[in-house]
Specification:
heterodimer; A: mainly alpha; MetI-like fold; two-stranded antiparallel ribbon; 15 helices; B: mainly alpha; 13 helices
């Protein structure tokens, strides 16, 4: 209560600031806080928590013969189905593509982020803004742009023909999906990497070079360990949305490249097997939560 | 500069070339899309002279126009509601300790980190059950449409708005608010004349973010929409699945323009409110400090 000493008019109040008074004030503040949060709280419980609970209930339910869902008699059948070859293949394919996307992003983004971090502040900011501009734009439109580029009569095919490489059909292949995913999520890798490299005291790099370490040794022993938080954060930020991607594989992929997201949607819209779709979306969310926890643990937040 | 930190020689050339390639990768697809939306050739990807035909098609396409209006209405309505709810939530979390605060905090983060597909499934099942109950209890035969889309958009927008406003509140000292209260201002007056003017940039940023997210969303909307009403992205998504046409090119370019205008507005607003500084750097930091997983995360940073 040091502030009160400068303001005599508050002395009277200070006099009544007994433990009971403070407790009452605390209770009042608590009530106020609760009331302020109430509208959003109620909204999220009704339109978010309840739906989440419904998905959980459905994941334990059984599909009946008419394509409907029997909610009575909970069982783990839907989760057991995840072990079946078709679903397992899709799970592994999604996992593999997400890992591949993450690795490509890492390899492409690291030198790029390092280059940005070693520029003058003005150039640096300009470069960063130009990393972000494409990502201000609509995600769907960005994926569509690749469809135009890679399409049958697209620029890519025309160029490859002109170069005498023959007609290369990239669209509707796994490569196209990976290109789309890398395009969509590359900034998620660039920005955390940049943020962590920018923080490194670069005189350490100088010291390493002064002590006759080669460029590669410096990277391997100095830069990389110090930028590890950025590497981990970036990898999670790319891996997680890649794993649950739906729009990109739908637009750029083909029938042979069904991924987890599309498979879940199919279970609801055409296959009418809601329990399996619900259990898969739950698995997807679990992966997401684990990744988020890892992210916070490794200090992603305090980078 | 004699520093060994600055890449030199072949390293520098390689790094510079690499950066240009990355930028080429970023911008070439968008550039090609814009150029070919003016091409007078039904084959997308072949230049057939300049035309505005496809844009005219867009204006005359009644279904597209319908979808545009659904999008605009959903975006505005969900933004207004989520800005109010999100700002209140941010105030509660940053300025008060209350029972259930931690649970609320966690609940508020979930819509940001949850995969789009999972949230879409949640909305589908929820509305299926919800409408059943409405029907059996009130005899009201509700249909999915504008209302259900708006409800689902508010459900994710509240969280994004509150994150942006909270960031603003967290960086703000409470001294002025305390001074106002000491000088016998009521709680409301303190909020109206002291707190609110200071968080306006945060609220505006949150609102623009909510608008953008609402206008961008495909997956969740697709599951919350009924036969009666679809938004522009969902309609376009359906068109794209049937094939590439110049009409989609034109529509895409218009959607692209809309998002760029929204971002320009938010940047201008930041400058105007004297908090511009180095938006890009702050955005970069924010991208790292915000929880992961949505493709909207970087945008969130921009609007800080």
């Amino acid at each position: 209560m040091t502030m009160v000493a400068d303001r005599p008019e508050r002395l009277e109040e200070a006099a009544v600031a007994t433990p009971e008074f403070e407790k009452a004030a605390e209770r009042a503040a608590s009530r106020r806080g609760f009331l302020l949060s109430l509208p959003a709280y109620a909204y999220l419980v009704l339109f978010f928590a309840v739906p989440l609970g419904i998905v959980m209930i459905y994941s334990f339910a059984t599909r009946n013969r008419f394509g409907g869902t029997d909610l009575s008699g909970w069982n783990l059948d839907a989760y057991r189905k995840l072990g079946e070859p078709i679903v397992r293949d899709i799970l592994f394919r999604s996992l593999w593509l997400a890992i591949l996307t993450t690795l490509i992003c890492l390899v492409v983004a690291y030198p790029f982020a390092y280059f940005i971090a070693t520029r003058t502040p003005l150039v640096r900011n300009l470069m960063l803004v130009f990393v972000m501009i494409p990502f201000w734009t609509n995600f769907l439109v960005r994926n569509y742009a690749w469809r135009v580029l890679l399409g049958n009569d697209g620029l890519f095919t025309n160029i490859s023909e002109a170069l005498g490489l023959g007609e290369r059909e990239l669209l509707f292949t796994t490569s196209a999906v990976v290109i789309g995913l890398v395009y969509g999520f590359l900034p998620f890798m660039v920005l955390p990497l940049y943020a962590s490299i920018e923080r490194i005291d670069l005189s350490l790099v100088e010291a390493s070079r002064d002590l006759y370490a080669s460029g590669f040794q410096t990277f391997r022993r100095v830069l990389l360990p110090l930028s590890m938080p950025g590497v981990i954060a970036g990898s999670i930020l790319v891996f997680v949305p890649s794993l649950g991607a739906y729009v990109t594989p739908e637009i750029l992929g083909g029938a042979k490249t069904t991924l987890l997201g599309s498979y879940i949607v199919t279970q609801f819209l055409t296959a009418r097997n809601w329990p399996v779709g619900a259990s898969l979306s739950f698995v997807l969310m679990a992966v997401m939560l684990v990744a988020t926890l890892v992210y916070f643990r490794t200090g992603g937040r305090n980078l | 500069m004699s520093s060994t930190v600055q890449p030199r020689g072949t390293t520098k050339i390689a790094l510079t070339a690499h950066s240009w390639l990355v930028y080429l990768f970023f911008f070439a697809p968008i550039f090609v899309l814009i150029v070919f939306s003016f091409s007078d050739d039904r084959n997308v990807g072949r230049w057939g002279g300049f035309t505005l035909e496809w844009y005219q098609d867009f204006v005359e396409h009644s279904q597209l126009q319908n979808a545009v209006w659904v999008s605009v209405r959903v975006a505005l309505l969900s933004t207004v509601i989520s800005v109010v709810l999100g700002t209140l939530a941010a105030l509660a979390l940053e300025r008060f300790k209350f029972r259930g605060r931690k649970v609320f905090d966690a609940l508020l983060y979930l819509p940001i980190i949850i995969p789009d597909v999972t949230m879409a499934v949640m909305m589908l099942l929820f509305f299926a059950e919800f409408f059943d109950i409405l029907e059996s209890v009130f005899g009201w035969d509700a249909q999915k449409g504008l209302g259900s889309i708006t409800i689902s958009h508010i459900a994710f927008n509240i969280s994004f708005v509150s994150v942006v406003v909270r960031a603003r509140l967290a960086g703000m000292s409470e001294v002025l608010e305390e001074a106002a209260l000491d000088l016998y201002a009521t709680r409301w007056k303190t909020f109206r004349y002291v707190t609110f003017p200071q968080i306006v940039p945060g609220v505006a940023g949150g609102a623009l973010l909510a608008l953008t997210l609402s206008l961008d969303d495909v997956v969740i909307t697709q599951f919350a929409a009924g036969p009666g009403a679809t938004t522009l992205p969902v309609f376009v998504f359906g068109l794209i699945r049937r094939g590439v046409t110049p009409l989609i090119n034109a529509t895409s370019v218009l959607m692209l323009t809309a998002s760029v205008i929204l971002v320009a507005l938010s940047l201008a607003f930041q400058q105007f409110s004297g908090r511009g500084g180095r938006p890009s750097l702050r955005a970069a930091r924010q991208a790292v400090s915000a929880p992961p997983t949505t493709n909207t995360q970087i945008k969130e940073g921009i609007y800080q």
